[in-house]
Design a protein that fits this description.
Length: 488
């Protein structure tokens, strides 16, 4: 059973299932470069309800266990506009297209295989599903339980013998599961080669060949070909590429809720400059130390041990979550501070969201919220971030009570796209720090090629949801952010 991600509820009114686009960086020579991927939103062609978003976050958090690459993003992260994102990747020789959710909350990449039982054959997302056949790929090979990847991932496996496959099994908190065996094959992508320029590249990656699915993973509802984990473990694609000297373990995303799309890049971001805070060591998620919460210039009076509870140390930063979840005591204090001066409002619930009618600018009528982290790193959340419009002059609150969402989330701080959108968020696993800065996600950033020292401009992207992504010489993907998976 997977236990890599702690079960929790997440979700963000600006629902971007974001998706970080994973850029597999690789050229024939071992150079660290940049790759380019395009993505597409999950709810293309239809508008999700806030109930859809809540259901997504509930599933996601019950699953949570825990050179430069340019990955173009598409869609817009507003619950009543777009929704989740997914990406298209190329696997095998000859290459075939696969649509995958990308998840920073899990580690392995897996796709449904030709021999799969209970794998969906159709999707209501309007994409064509493809079953992967390792025997039909000239570059595919099975991974045995004796091979280094298997041993380093699972340790000594009882009953392992020559030619027996290296198996995987992931159980999600919502009751769904995937199991199968590992294979190694070629994944294609585009490497950044100059300002606004890319060239074809590929890499050999070990991933799961899904032989059986259950629960939601076997349903045609919102079905995709698989999940791409972008976590910290050695089994993740990012770690495999880094071990091969193809990339540095550094990536960044900028989610644009103003114009849609945004930026996702693997590599050393040199502009804008980003202030960072240390990652909490030995945690399966991207956890950081939250020190205080400020509302409208006043600090909330909270128990001093609230920010570090039991085994779950720190606050989880998760772009795959839509909203933001706080322990009940913090949630109540935050909501009281935000709404205590608004006795003129009449509240009602809509699909379990607290909503109210309001005319005028919410930024003028409600306070700013500021999270204070170690190293004096601040995370500013404005009223237009945590209040989302759900009809004419109707606003709903994006803050969520983790204690109500799930027992496992009652003491958890989990901050999703509600607080991360319209900011460049940097994950520097080389130095074990994470940081962010407010940024125009419709603009561009600059990344450095570690081998040559060259600095290249990476632009924002907003892929039209109406057209199919073309693989040809360009491979595109999106880290969806990700459904949180459990990893062993």
């Amino acid at each position: 059973m997977a236990s890599r991600r702690p079960s929790s509820s997440c979700f963000r009114f600006l629902v971007l299932e974001l998706v970080l686009l994973l850029g597999l960086l690789v050229l024939s020579p071992p150079a660290r470069g940049a790759g380019m991927f395009k993505v597409r939103r999950k709810f293309a062609g239809r508008s999700p309800t806030i109930g859809d978003l809540r259901a997504h976050d509930t599933r996601r958090h019950s699953r949570i266990l825990a050179a430069a690459v340019d990955l173009p993003l598409g869609g817009i992260g507003i619950p009543t506009d777009t929704g989740l994102y997914f990406a298209e990747i190329g696997i095998g020789t000859p290459s075939k297209n696969y649509y995958v959710q990308v998840d920073t909350g899990s580690d392995i990449l897996w796709v449904n295989c030709i021999s799969c039982r209970r794998c969906p054959l159709k999707s209501d997302l309007g994409v064509e599903l493809t079953l992967y056949d390792p025997n039909a790929s000239g570059s595919g090979s099975l991974v045995s339980c004796e091979e280094k990847f298997c041993v380093s991932t699972y340790g000594d496996i009882p009953g392992c013998a020559a030619n027996l496959p290296c198996q995987y099994s992931v159980m999600y908190g919502d009751g769904s599961s995937t199991s199968g065996y590992f294979v190694t094959d070629t994944v294609q992508y585009n490497q950044v080669s100059g300002d606004h320029q890319t060239k074809p590249a590929n890499a050999s990656v070990t991933f799961g060949c899904g032989a059986q699915q259950s629960g939601d993973l076997g349903s045609p509802n919102s079905a995709l070909d698989g999940i791409l984990g972008f976590g910290q473990s050695n089994s993740s694609m990012l770690s495999q590429l880094a071990s091969a000297g193809k990339v540095k373990k550094i990536f960044a995303h900028c989610l644009d809720t103003v114009n849609g799309g945004g930026i996702f890049a693997i590599g050393h971001v040199v502009q804008p400059k980003v202030k960072t805070t240390p990652l909490v060591p030995d945690q399966p998620h991207y956890n950081v130390n939250l020190k205080a919460i400020e509302v409208g210039g006043s600090f909330l009076q909270l128990p001093t041990d609230l920010f570090d509870t039991g085994d779950r140390k720190g606050t989880i930063i998760d772009s795959g979550t839509t909203l933001a979840y706080l322990p009940e005591v913090a949630y109540k204090a935050l909501m009281n501070a935000i709404l205590s001066q608004r006795s003129d409002l009449s509240f009602f619930t809509s699909q379990d969201f607290l909503c109210f009618r309001y005319s005028g600018s919410v930024d003028d009528g409600f306070p700013e919220v500021v999270f204070h982290f170690q190293n004096s790193l601040l995370l500013n959340v404005y009223p237009h971030d945590y209040l989302f419009e759900n009809g004419a002059n109707v606003y709903c609150v994006g803050w969520q009570n983790g204690g109500v969402q799930s027992k496992d989330g009652k003491d958890m701080f989990l901050l999703g796209d509600l607080v991360l959108s319209n900011k460049l968020v940097l994950y520097d696993l080389e130095n074990q720090v994470i940081g962010w800065t407010e940024y125009n996600c419709s603009s561009s950033i600059k990344v450095q090629d570690d081998k040559t020292g060259a600095i290249y401009t990476v632009d924002a992207h907003n892929i039209s949801p109406g057209r199919r992504l073309q693989l040809g010489r360009s491979i595109f993907w999106l880290l969806v952010t990700l459904v949180c998976c459990l990893i062993y």
